[in-house]
Each structure stands twice: as C-alpha cells, then as structure tokens.
Amino acid sequence: MGTWTISAATGTARATAEAWEHGVTAAGAVVVVLMVAAAASLLRTPGQDPVLRLLWLLVVLAFPVVGAALWFALGRRAPRPA
Fold first, then answer.
1. What tens digit of pLDDT does each residue of 36-68 get?
2. What residues have CB less than 8 Å from 72, skipping those under 6 apart?
C-alpha cells in the first residue's frame, strides 16, 4: 500500500469522527435548550402548587428530553386552583 492510500483512509476516518462530534454537540445543545425552556415555562406558570412545581422540576432535570416533553404535553394543562 502506498503512502497516499494510507493518508486518504486516515482523512476519511478523521472526517467521519468530526461529523460525529458536530452531531453529538448539536444534539446536546438541543437537549440543553429544551430543558431550559421547560424549566422556564414551569417556573413561569402561575397558580401552580409549589410541591407539584418542585416535582415537575426534578423530573425535567432528571430526564431532560422525556421530562420536558411530558411537561409540555401534560404539565401545563394541569388544573389550577380557582
């Protein structure tokens, strides 16, 4: 095998690794933004019981993607005291 073949294969592997790094970084940024948006929405919701608010916050922090999805799907629709 010639030198050019070895360096071409290494370049392809490096490009693939960089693509994965960028993808993982972007996915992590999306998760952080989703978690912060859910926490901000949770803390800004008026009339929420403080204990229930704390439990929701723990769920969002412990399970960022699923917890935020559950908050946006179910938590904001919780009945508020009259």
1. 999 999 999 888 889 999 999 999 999 999 999
2. 38, 41
pTM check: above 0.85: no
**Residue 55 backbone class (left: φ over 0; alpha: ψ -120 to 50; beta: rest):** alpha
Q: How far apart are CA 32 and CA 38, in angstroms?
A: 10
What distance in Å separates the CA atoms of residue 34 and residue 74, rounded to the nearest whole number?
16
Q: What proportions of the chain, in percent to the nearest 5, are helix, strand and coil?
A: 85, 0, 15
- Give CA–CA dist 30/57, Å, rounded: 18
